What does this fold into?
Amino acid sequence: RRRQKKQFKRNKKEYEKLSDHIGFIPLVMISPADIEIIQGGSEERRKFMDMAISQFDKAYMHALIRYNNALQQRNATLKMDDNEIDFTLLELWEDQMAGEGELIFEKRQAFVKEFIPVFDEFYKRISLSNEKATFDYVSQLRENNFREALRQTRRRDIAVGHTTTGIHRDELEMLLDGFPIKKVGSQGQNKTYFVSMKLAQFHYLLKTGKRTPILLLDDIFDRLDAYRVEEIVKLVSSNEFGQIFISDTNRGSFDKILERINNSHHIYSVKDGEITVYA
It folds into this structure.
């Protein structure tokens, strides 16, 4: 059976492309799956940067789409038999990758530079420690002219059948006191790290965008010390964060925190598909 085309609409008008909706309602969601930003492969960290920047910078998002398309076309060309490769076409894709890639690199670099101090401040406030949380943005474009690098790696790329140079191989090294947190961090430190990243993302969107983002915290308090949980709730209860949604399975301890903070809130209990509303 043929799949039906998915339709995305706003005010009953269908989007030509789903990417047109990105950033219209800025959203930051924090969930246990975010541990993959730290523990997963480098593509997870690039995805974090790309989503954070794309929500407020359409030029970046479109450059990323064009870059990925050119990369896909170059890789397809590299996989051809040697006597079938069209080097004029290959150069065309390389020129497009170089132009878009340099813009992406510059915007990622600027984002990380501005993001780090805000992120570190959130980490210190939640952990109540002087641990230094930071990133190191690693890119081949720091040292090389991208267009020249693509030319120089052609033979190797033809041999392996894919592109070995470019911003699609960038890395965001995540450090705690100068060491990779994925190797030295406890569960609590890892969780504090990615929560701080997402709160810094919220702050960045608030500063750069036209709308206050929506913040969703989905069951993130498991295996966090009680004082860290309370610090997070205090932070997101400030006026800066506007409307937030929090889900948690430990009702008792969470109620006590809400009582101490004494902020306006509503509680919805979901059990066996039934929703009960509390004041």
